Amino acid sequence: MRHLLGTTDLSREDAILLLDTAAQMAATQEREVRKLPTLRGKTVVNLFFEDSTRTRISFEAAAKRLSADVINFSAKGSSVSKGESLKDTALTLQAMGADAVVVRHWASGAAYQLAHGGWLHGSVLNAGDGTHQHPTQALLDAFTARRHLVADPTGQGLDGLTVAIVGDVLHSRVARSNVHLLNTLGAHVVLVAPPTLVPVGIEPWPCTVVHTLDQAIETYDIDALMMLRVQRERMSGGGDAFFPSPAEYSRIYGLDADRMNRLPDHAIVMHPGPMNRGLEISAEAADSPRSVIVEQVANGVAVRMAALYLLLAGEEGAQ
Amino acid sequence: MTGTIMGAADISRALTRIAHEIVERNDGAADVVLMGIPTRGLPLAHRLAARIADIDPGFDAETACGALDITMYRDDLFKNPTRTIGTTSVPDAGIDDAVVVLVDDVFHTGRTIRAALDAIRDIGRPRAVQLAALVDRGHRELPIRADFVGKNIPTARSERVNVHLEELDGEDAVLLTKGA
After folding, report:
1. Does residue B6 lie within any of the structural domains?
2. Is A229 labelled as part of a ligand binding site?
3. What band does B2 get if pLDDT is binned at 50, 70 and 90?
4. Does residue A7 lie within any of the structural domains?
5. Which of A228, A281, B55, B130 could tie B147 with a disulfide, CB 3.0–4.6 Å?
6. Does A54 belong to an annotated binding site?
7. Is the pTM of the predicted complex or chain greater than 0.95?
8. ipTM value of the model?
């Protein structure tokens, strides 16, 4: 692997290698000394054109636990706000000797452009681009699900499991990354969303679409329920709203105690964070023993350590 | 001299002798923890533990055995294709104040053991670290020596030493082959 840009082209073999490596990384994080010397002398640049404290500190922690040097570059108050192009930013990072660039950008395809523009020698990790892909989030979701739902998980996929993803699929790169990765790993994906929040052209996606959460719970044997965040600006009011009111969304798509109790006993509840308690998920559901939301954050560091290791260790390519 | 250097009986005798040496050197096996270095150090560590338990009935072969994967501590990570990370398992009691005996199949440049010493340092602070190897083939690149050796095999740098073990390869043998 040279870059990690999305989950669409990720082979099952590579996905399982990433998850297995993440499991070994997670094991090292239970020790007293959690720092490993593995990537000493390598430089990882966090290039963030969009605010994202969680993803940035998760990548930063992952790189530091592997002894890489970390440079944080946020677009706000930087050369980018003075009008610098992506290309010139990339050339600057190249000149500073970046071995890996973790990029979060508001434009779909920015990570691909950065990786294939011929501006950088290093590896590119997509930390979310527009409404396109967010591969490390999907990997940490798969890792968390595998840990809870698959006995003796090493080397295994998620074969035969059913994962429901509920909420704003239209604007969600997390949903897009998850649909493809979960399918690659052998799981059946059920998307649950109001028709206004289902993307046009969803037919070729390897998943099933239903329009109410109750219908999903009644029809499918759900092993993992993944709630997506409702972004406030999309909620209601004016002609550009996607659903009539937050209360109506909550009634039809929100996860409350009643719906949670109708899930199979072993089912887990996931959320990529940050949560809107009382909107897409009730406090009872978020704080229940089935909720693995806090664990997802810890697993995120292990998965990002695995991605950095697999991209940066090994022979230098044709440079 | 190429071909089979040690057969099943030779390997078995060498391990029995090493087990006795470990017990003798440490005045019993009370504090001994065997850490096998994957891949083939692991079954060797288990075999040594079983033999030590035969000598010293107070020694629990199950709880005093661990695995130490050194991939993330190697000094050649950027000179070879990406390596898969193996499992490290430490006995529940930890290794603080224990006598850790590192177990590997072939002792060669010493770089693996250098990495293992770094890995040990991140896991705990043993009272002492010792090294047991089934084969010492020479060509050290670091000032590291073994405490317990099954057999010294003089080799040329270009030759290869392969250890086959019943658990992984279906037979017990040490093979020496000419290099390219």
Report:
1. no
2. yes
3. confident
4. no
5. B130
6. yes
7. no
8. 0.87
